[in-house]
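sanity check this record:
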Amino acid sequence: MPVDRELFEMSAGRHIVSTAMISLNHPSAAMMRRKSENVLRLKADGKSTDDIAREAGVSRSTVTRILRYVERAAAS
């Protein structure tokens, strides 16, 4: 699934602020952005969900959630 990284960053930024009510400059927001970017990079490399979770250091459900969010953001 091709991912528009600029669209993801813009959408992810709005999602983080509106849901968690934290600043985009907050360390946890930056950490989530890095994890999300890593997940997207690994997906673009053709890795499976299990491989992505292992390599990115996140749960399988986190990988699925990130990919689903990006897919929905791209569709709107």
